[in-house]
Amino acid sequence: MSQPHTLKHRLHLMFAGQHLNSRATAIFNLVLAGIIILNVLAMMLETMDELYLAWKPVFRGFEGFSIVFFLTEYILRIWVADLTPRYQKPIIGRLRYMLSPMALIDLLAILPSLIFVGSTDLRFLRAVRLFRIVRLLHLPHLNEAMHSIWQAARSKRAEFLIAGVIMFVLLLICSSLVYFAEHNAQPKAFSSIPAALWWGIMTLTTVGYGDIYPITLAGKILAAIFAALGIGFFALPSAILASAMIEQSRKKDLQLTCPHCGNKLDRRN
Q1: Does position 202 have pLDDT exceeding 50, yes or no?
Q2: Which of 113, 128, 181, 263 has the fewest CB atoms found within 10 Å of its own CB?
Q3: pTM of the full predicted structure?
């Protein structure tokens, strides 16, 4: 394994947000975030045809620079991947890293541009380039935050499942009742229960596009009741996640790490 003073080891620590020189890590993260954000802004501005045609050389030049930057970073991440404990084997470890979700997103962000070089005005290529914003998760603080949210969500998966089932049942009841109340008055808008599901989703999520709405007295009463239920009920997943995050934060606060052996201690002991 490379020694701590080698370039490979330094790059590994920098990509992990643990570089010995914190200033270098901060600069790299700032540059990475800046280029990703500029790429997303450029992709958005390219959809303005007049602006794109007027600044086409600039857009293409920036895209070329971005491809080189992201490709270099991708190759370097593969190079240092074997320094991570779970990817230790030189060949198999690197292949496992390349198949990890974040590495696949990295590849998806650059591969279409490499394949269709010179055709950066393709619509689907612009859409795929939007994946580059997901690469912000490579930033250590964001990565750690996402991991905490994922762990919190996993700890409450049973509650999320129950809440999802209840929401689905409520949606079916809501759509079915309104279908029976409105079908005779609006046979095209509420032609079937599956068709009424669109109205039910819009009502329970309190979006209400207005393209389909009840006109009968019974339908309006049902719509008012279900809209009120939707305001509180669709906030339930957020409450479950918030509770899980609080519990996880308390667990971290109760744990200490021994400076001598590295074992975790409990403040309650």
Answers
A1: yes
A2: 263
A3: 0.60
